Amino acid sequence: MKLYEQLADSIAQSIQEGVLCRGDKLPSVRHASTSRHVSPSTVLEAYYLLEARGLITARERSGYFVTGGAVNIPSSPAPIIQADPQLTQVDVSELVFQVLQSIRVKNIIPLGSAFPSPLLFPRANLARTMASSVQSMDPWASIDTLSTGDANLRRQIALRYMMDGLHVAADEIIVTNGALDALNLCLMAVTRPGDTVLIESPTFYAALQAIERIGLRAIEVPSHPKDGIDLDAMERAIQRHKPKACWIMTNFQNPLGSLLSDDKKKALVALITKYQVPLIEDDVYSELYFGDKRPMPAKAFDTQGLVMHCSSFSKCLAPGYRVGWVAPGQYTQLVERLKLTTTISTSVPSQIALQVFAKVI
Questions:
Q1: If you classify domain 3-66 with CATH, what class do you get?
Q2: 154: which of 165, 173, 205, 269 fits an S-S bond (Cβ 3.0–4.6 Å)?
Q3: Which of 166, 159, 183 is nearest to 297 (CA)?
Q4: Looking at the domain covering 87-360, what would its CATH class be?
Q5: 290-305 pLDDT tens trace
């Protein structure tokens, strides 16, 4: 942790504990620098950080004042006790349509669906890259990239994995029409109508919709807002119902927001390896982290290729471009064949989008 972050955390603790109260004036930058034995720039960075957290505010020619205060943070809810997860017939399509309809109301934050504001994306940079890509696009690209996707884009995605310490070959990566296309392809590759799929409860609504559409049955395993899926309940469900696949969000789960620790991800991978159940890892939110490093996916701990890692650029660059991918491990050929037999967008805009992202990322 950097020095200014330590100073900010120390002041924040004083605010939360009531030592500093709402309206109190903080020491001047010069005084804090002298008393804390740090540089003025360190104090300023700490104050900027506290201001960003909403704990203090700057008043012109007056200094910094406390705006937050001691807060009684509610305790985490108790985990749901479900000794014997039951099979569920899924019927959610109508509800999903209602949720998606609600996000069109622009003056309301759409808490029913996890879509970032379109105002946050780098539209100007994307537009410039799009313009240059249109001029240089190879007409044969719409044919060459039918199966796995643009070669340069797949190489860039492989480099992203490498920077996180994962080795994923570019040839293993399959570019898809958004992450949801990747997730659906994976689900169809390892299941047949009537099969059983293990999911978290609550879970992402599109997972339920996919299960309903394919004609599968769901086993709901309780998930905690802090710790994520209950691995003990998951193992009992696997032993009893023998699912053909698991669909789990390991990083910033939608809708709970839970983040599995690295130890729990290791345990999760060990569990699916023990029972040889493929894991469809929905990892679209890992870019939205606040720490120094993007959280690792469960795929980082997979040694047998059982984890089918799905992600996209929809939550960090541009949702409308519908560019996602999957690294399906030992199921690469299954997913690739399935993609070839399903409807594939070969329009000029889609091919340009692949080239744009190959340059942007």
A1: mainly alpha
A2: 173
A3: 166
A4: alpha beta
A5: 777 889 999 999 999 9
